[in-house]
Amino acid sequence: MTRKKTAVTRKKTVDPRAYSRVVVEGDRRAAARAMLRAVGFGDADFDKPQIGIASTWANLTPCNMHIGELAREAAAGADAAGGKSVLFNTITVSDGISMGSPGMRYSLVSRELIADSIEAVVGAEGFDGFVALGGCDKNMPGCAMAMARLNRPAVFVYGGTIRPGAQRRDIVAVFEAVGARAAGKISAAELLEVERTAIPGPGSCGGMYTANTMAAAIEALGLSLPGSSAQDAVSEAKVSDCRRAGEAVMRLLEAGLKPRDMLTRKAFENAITVVIALGGSTNAVLHLLAIAHEACVKLGLDDFTRIGRRVPVLADLKPSGRYLMSELVAIGGIQPLMKMLLAAGLLHGECLTVTGRTLAENLAGVGEYPADQDIVRPLAAPLRKDSHLVVLYGNLAPAGAVAKITGHEGERFSGRARVFESEEAATEAILAGHVRAGDVVVIRNEGPRGGPGMREMLGPTGALVGRGLGAQVALITDGRFSGGSHGFVVGHVAPEAANGGPIGLIRTGDRITIDAVRREITVELTATELRRRRAAWKPRKEPPAGVLAKYALLVGSASEGAVTGRGASRQSSR
Questions:
Q1: Catalytic residue annotation
Q2: Domain extents for the chain?
Q3: Angle, helix 188-197 to helix 171-182, in steps of 10 degrees
Q4: Under CATH, what is the fold of the domain 389-560?
Q5: pTM of whole model > 0.90?
Q6: Per residue in 534-551, pLDDT tens?
Q7: Quick one: three-class SS letters along 262-309?
């Protein structure tokens, strides 16, 4: 589909102050103006479009510790372009800090809280447009979901990637060092040295983990400026990106362009394509489904399979590859990769972006990668000829499951189940040496509803790799995985155990087979035996109180993005 709108083609009925005008104009709004004067508005400001700056700053994680400064740069850009910026904060939680603890249950929940809070502030205050800045994993999809819901001119800014620690270490190196220490491969002093040197400063985790994956996906969707997803957190490029984002929102206001003008089905296909080519996180499946849900775009698990059959993995990035995101940034980021994919007919170049231009127009002046680099492979010599994100079905996952199969693990695994009712129990068994080569570790009751919160399993997968079992043990769960996880791992198993899904019926000793070629995940039980076990099945526990209880009540299936909004369904095998 050819788009006719550009940044300089203004819709006839555009009012750049459509929302703020209602809040500040007329005698009846004197009280509102009085309140705004107290926070810095002058007489002239009431005639300007109001631009919200949604910051996820917090001093509780390196991913977000610098975002307050970046938000002020975005505000300065909006003000310089003729707007009146208003800075506000939403929350963040740290996956890296809470990983492996009960606190990790709040991680995916925070995605909804971020989307809800941005929607609430922008809607309540009557902002005409906004810039949203995110750093840690759930910030990005949360911001994008709010952009899709509100459908007011908006630009997303990624906080940027962290620079490598000593010996090119990152957070995953610490998790794997814990496993190595348990196996006696390193000393306590060596573990402490890894801990002290892995995280050198601000920025999101340094491989093609969930943060960098989602930043790239959002750029491919057209919601951030070109290059925003591949910049160091501490850099002049990132400062400039923020200022230009503030300016860009003003141009979008003038042109009347809104997020849903960008968020077409073809744009989501572009995002999936870029995620695959980069070897990105399985969490991209969950989050892109959720963003599509908010944008009212039909997208399903099978779209990842359809697109994945023709898109190769090209980037040799951690966790399964060799390089860090900062090293990709140094050779040009993702723009040359996107240009390569566009030239091969793998991207829809006509999709509109927040520049007001199409994707193809944005990429027209982009050069190629240096000839001597080996981070991104040519299309003729890919790391893998099709997608590493493999959607599996079978009697163990009737509604689907998602695996990350890079090829290093092999493509088929069959073994006896070792069943654990929580992540903690599984991690303890792995570190104690009770899990052996050939086992299929099953971690259940960790799904969106059952956790609640669908925790990431970087602790047990890191422990397996650290103990040298990464290629010898498979792990399946109704939870999910950090982008830093690698090995023969399958998550998002649906229906989840808490909804009576087959993963809740497995017993230790049952034989499980994962076949990435046939895209199947099965347990060697007859339909009769599964029915017998299901008849005897009872829910394991009641959810806790507070926000986790609300989430458990509202959340839908992982196979549909684990959303809590309209149309969310809790798939049951009954």
A1: 482
A2: 50-163+201-363, 168-198, 389-560
A3: 170
A4: Glucose Oxidase; domain 1 (3.50.30)
A5: yes
A6: 999 988 766 678 999 999
A7: HCCHHHHHHHHHHHHHHCCCCHHHHHHHHHHHHHCCCCCHHHHHHHHC
